[in-house]
Every structure is written in C-alpha cells, then in structure tokens.
Design brief:
By secondary structure, the protein is an all-alpha fold. It has one domain. The chain has four helices and no strands. 4% of the residues are buried. The model has no long low-confidence stretch (mean pLDDT 88).
Length: 100
C-alpha cells in the first residue's frame, strides 16, 4: 500500500512540475491561479482526512512517534494534528478553551 501512496503523490508532483514548465507566462499564471484556488478549497478537507487517520491511530494506541514515522511528519506535527491545529503557529487559536 505504501508504494501506491507514493505513486499517487508522485502523480500530483509530476502534474505540478508540468504546470511550472508551461512556457507561456500568462497561460502558466492562469493555470497556477486555478491550482491555488482549488488548493484553498480542498485543503480543509484534506486536513480533516489526515486528522481522522491520526485520531484513529491514537484510538488504536499507536504512539505519536510511530504515527509521525508512518506519515513522514514530525512528532510535534502529529500532536498538533491531534489537537486540531491546522496550520502555522500564527493561525492557531490564541485563547484557551474555558475550564470545566
């Protein structure tokens, strides 16, 4: 399965390389605009899917370190994903939830 995942990711990377290789700068910019707009729409769903996988692995008692290795991300990233933090530190909520 891991090879299939790598192949699918490689297809995406190859397609992005083809976009970068478009010779006409205006045509390239148009395509880049479309790609970025799609990314903005798709990114939250992709983050949710990744978080679901992390939460399931944690429910299955898989360690943070093993999850990090499986997802090829850092330990801190796995912990942030589990907490529901989506992006860079600047985009995280600055207030703590009220104590119960």
């Amino acid at each position: 399965m891991a090879d299939d995942v790598g192949e699918e990711a490689q297809k995406v990377f190859d397609a992005l390389s083809e976009v970068e290789a478009i010779e006409d700068p205006v045509a390239r910019a148009v395509v880049i605009s479309k790609v970025l707009a799609d990314h903005d729409e798709r990114a939250p769903r992709l983050r949710d899917l990744r978080r679901q996988a992390v939460l399931q692995l944690r429910a299955d008692k898989v360690s943070y370190r093993k999850i990090a290795a499986m997802l090829n991300v850092s330990l801190g990233t796995v912990q942030s994903i589990e907490r529901g933090h989506a992006g860079a530190w600047g985009t995280k909520a600055r207030t703590k939830p009220p104590a119960e």
